[in-house]
Amino acid sequence: MKDTVEIAGIEDLLPGTMKKVVVGDHEYLLSRIGDRFYCTDNRCPHLDADLSTGFLTGTILTCPLHHSRFDITDGHVVRWTNLSGHILSMARQQKPPHALKTYPVTVEGGKILVDLS
Questions:
Q1: pLDDT number for residue 117
Q2: What is the CATH number of the domain that holds 40?
Q3: Cα–Cα distance for residue pair 108/111, rounded to 1 Å
Q4: What is the distance between the alpha carbons of residues 97 and 111, in angstroms, rounded to a whole number?
Q5: How many Å apart are CA 76 and CA 53, to the nearest integer?
Q6: How would you class 37 by CB atoms within 10 Å of its CB: exposed for 0-12, middle for 13-18, buried for 19 or more?
Q7: Residue 81 burial (C-beta neighbours within 10 Å; 0-12, 13-18, 19+)
Q8: Could you read off the pLDDT of 15-32 as tens digits, one per residue?
């Protein structure tokens, strides 16, 4: 890991929770599922909503704005928006679905380290 940064301690997150962390001028979302930690961008790739105010169900993160869903393990799109029909078609043309960026996480000595490169 080239640009590894200590982003939090394991005691900072209870299982099933998430937390916004700012490093420099970039927002990251740190999530804990059981004893595993995941890091993604904190801004939704659909319309830039703050994902830390969304919902986490297992490894599925739901955006609070249009309910786009992403799997935090690899960032893939589970559902692009909660829109339907013609409105969904238009929304996909204007802003095609794309994955949520994820970052490798390691835990050492109670510290959560993230490769931000």
A1: 87
A2: 2.102.10.10
A3: 5
A4: 33
A5: 19
A6: buried
A7: buried
A8: 999 999 999 999 999 999
Which has the closest alpha carbon to 105: 30, 19, 13? 30
Q: Are 97 and 88 in contact (CB under 8 A)?
A: no
Per the CB < 8 A criterion, the answer to whether 7 and 113 are in contact is: yes
Amino acid letter for position 63: C
Range of the domain at 82: 4-115
The phi and psi torsions of 39 (rounded to 5 degrees) equal -130, 130
For residue 115, give both structure tokens: 């490769």
Residues in the chain: 117
Q: Which of 58, 33, 30, 61 is nearest to 46 (CA)?
A: 61
Answer positive or negative: Cα dihedral of 11, 14, 20, 26: positive
Q: Give the count of domains, the chain.
A: 1
56/71 Cα distance (integer angstroms): 10
Query: Residue 1 — pLDDT band, cuts 50, 70, 90?
Result: very low
Closest C-alpha to 7, from 16, 26, 15: 26
